[in-house]
# Entry
Amino acid sequence: MDHIFTINKKINKSVDTSKHLSFTKLEKSTLCSISSSNVVAFSTECNIEEAGSLFWNSNVYVCDLNSPWQVHKILSNSSPISVLQWDFTGDLLLVADENGSIKIYKAKDHILNDWTLVLQTVLEGEHILSAAFFHSGKKICLNSEKKDSALYTEKFHHVKFACSVKQFGGRPASGALLLTTTGMLCSILLPQSTSQVAMVMATESLAPTRIFIKAADICYGKNGHFLLAVSNGDLSMPIQCYKVSVRKAEDKCVITSQSLLSFFLFEAPKEALMEQVSKEKNCHISHIKWIMREDADSVVVSATSDKISCLQVWELREKALPVHKSLGKSETPQFFNTVLWQYQCHFQYNSRVTSLATSKLSLLNNVSSGYVVATFADNSIHCLYRDTLKHLVSTTLTICPRYFDEPLARYPKTSIKISNIDMSWLGNILLVIDSDDSLHMFKLPPQIDSSTPLSVPYCTTILEYCMMSGFDWLDLLLVLRPGMLDAICDRLTESFNRQPSAVQQFFYVQYLCMKISLCRLSVQGQVKAHDLAQFLMLHSISTAFKSLLRPSEMSSHDKSPADSLANVIAEGQTDVDKVLMHLEAKEFTVEPSTLQSLQQLIQWVADLALNLLVKLPDSRPSMGKVYELLRDVKALNMLREMLVLIRIWGLLRPACLPVFIKSDGSLDVLALLFRLLSRLVQNVNEPDDTLIDECCLLPSQVQIQLFQPSNNRAVLASPQLVQQILPLQLEYNNDPECLMSSTDSGATQTVDSIRHLYLGRTPRAIKQCVRCGGSAGTIPVTRTAAIRAWDQRWLRSCQCGGLWRMQVYT
# Structure
């Protein structure tokens, strides 16, 4: 369990040391939660923006896991936060407190540092203890019988799983189920964007009479119901389980709760040492967690006191009970099958439990994979096997106060303790928040086969799973070793190329994003990452341009204009004007106003062709499997297709043509580029000398606009991380210099990496990607349908898959 980083509040030496110590000794409730898109939400009980603030204030902050020091406050609350819960997509964040306030937030226009309140309601006087968003009914797992299959469709399968609440037509509803300490259930049905109906809310008692609850957890049943395990904290009382169903009836929500089997911790065998634990003063049940979030049949319970703790796992099992001979009908012994809670295993430790976490995803359906992670009052963190609670690995979080400018030996003993922990969705990262509002991150062992270190096949399988399920893979990137990167990249490429063409086409953009993110982790891979990023943009522009083409006749469904263009390009013609003679002009006609709005994309395609050709004389055939855009026949043919389209559209609207500064006014640059690229495609590994000579002349014939690399900010997923001594000591809202890229481009202009426009030296406000540092303008340009569709393609995330963050320069 490598300790990767610690993020602290800013030091304020003017604040009295004794006051700081007194403030940290106060009992605080801080929480943290990681979304499926690897965005972290955490609560604090003071303002981390104000250095040395000693005023109580319950706040909720969000940050991206790739740059967790860049935090944004979304809420300042009057009561302590008791629940932080993300939905499955990572879009909605539910925040609830000890006074019954419920708020659901969403990132406005998918901007990470701009959040809007979607819904707000209150359960007066209720302390909200636990919450879960409705299940969408989608569940993808690794097929254990065919996990070595080459095809994704066989390797991964959709598990039959019902959604929590069905709407008209069987569509899954969006909403949440909440539980309070007084045993009240509350369901909230979020209004649809197209509906005029407001939020639908319903409340119901969990048990026949209201009961006091101190610890609880919610998981999803495969038939659309919820399973709740609750305890009032008393060791002599049972752990009670309930089956809760929520259904929508017209404009109302109906909650039904059914009591299930319960069990006592004292029913465990003597080796569980419950008698020894119960004799301790203030011994109580502190935490309950279902072993899995979906379709769980096991629960882990912690009984704890100040000096000793015991974790127990109980499992629902079918058991055959003998029927008495006087009740049976035959002389042979008869058995009656029933379901009972059975004790499985336990783990004991001589300290109080402070937090408990279990894996969020079950990658193998009905096969227990993953861990139970427990933290204790001595700040030790224990990673345990989920089925046996056997010790796998452990570490201790060492916390040094940073408020004093004194030698380490003179530091007083601090009372800073671990408050809460959470695992990333893929289970590679453990996030820890302490009572002083500091964040810590640890590496976890592999989820499926923990007996071996992180392996290339395992990492490739997880990347493929992310491709199929839509989960973010950043937490995997943070735990990879540098020596694995090339092998993972090669294995991922080989497995992707074995897929059917329809599957490749559907996942192609995400596949390229994964390869780019892997290449960016090494110093040697930066050039390859840049080439792949340019190919991804070229692929996107090609898709956008071809989507504008329409067949001229309704009967010609057998071959689209894009297919006709690809067939003509494949013939190897080097004269662009002769290519036009083989194409139907009507099929490539586009509205002139649309063409004008695409001019900046057309200019980028032409600039890319120039930049590639001018690099040809200096490039050498690469040994091994190193990717070069200049040697990619598929990319070069795609570029040739785009040049043909530009040539045709230039006849319709000359103003949309790319602009070149030429030494000879009569030079036809587009025809020259097409001819040179066509000759290069014929032999990419050994181009002839005359082609190289012509490429050498290009800079003297036309001015070449060199591409500006994206301004890569300081991020964790970078080559600099492996060069540092861990754990990194970071500070909120302060970019770490140790993670800054040494190869600074020194660019004087900010370039929009989506629209390919120059935004000036310091634009007032831009969107910046939290992963690659790419920029995008916020001011709308000419709004034709085509350019609007292009902007919406990148509205949710950058081309690398990273989220946008608004950057304002004053």
